[in-house]
Amino acid sequence: VPVIGTAGHVDHGKSTLVKALTGIDPDRLEEEKRRGLTIDLGFAWLTTPAGRQVGIVDVPGHERFIKNMLAGAGGIGLNLFVVAANEGWMPQSQEHLDIMDLLGISSAIVVITKTDTVDQSEVTALRYAIEERIQGTTLEGSTILEVTALTGRGLAELLEEIDSVLRRIPEPDGVSRTRLWIDRVFSIRGSGTVVTGTLAGGPVHTDQEVEILPGGHRARIRAIQSHRRELLFLGPGNRAALNLVGVEQQALARGDTLTNPGDWRVTDRLIASIRFLPHLDHEPQARGAYKFHVGSVEIDASLRFLEESAGPGESALAAIRLERPTVLDFKDRFILRDSGRRQTVGGGLVLEAHPARIRDRELVTPAGARARLSASDRPAYLQILLEEQGFLALQELPVLTGLKAAKLDPPAIVLPSFVLSERAFDLSTRQIAELLNRHQSSHPMEAGMPLTTLRSELRLPPQLLDELVAELVRRNVVRADSTAVRTRDFSPQVEGPEKMRLLQELDAAGASPPTVPELSTRHKPEMIRALIRSGELVQISPSQVFTSGLVDKIKAQIVERIRDRGPFTVADFRDMVATSRKYAVPLLEYLDHIGFTARQGDLRRLGPKATGLGTNR
Ligand SMILES: Nc1nc2c(ncn2[C@@H]2O[C@H](COP(=O)(O)OP(=O)(O)O)[C@@H](O)[C@H]2O)c(=O)[nH]1
Ligand SMILES: [Mg+2]
Question: What angle do CA 123, 126, 127 make, to 5 degrees?
Answer without folding.
Answer: 85
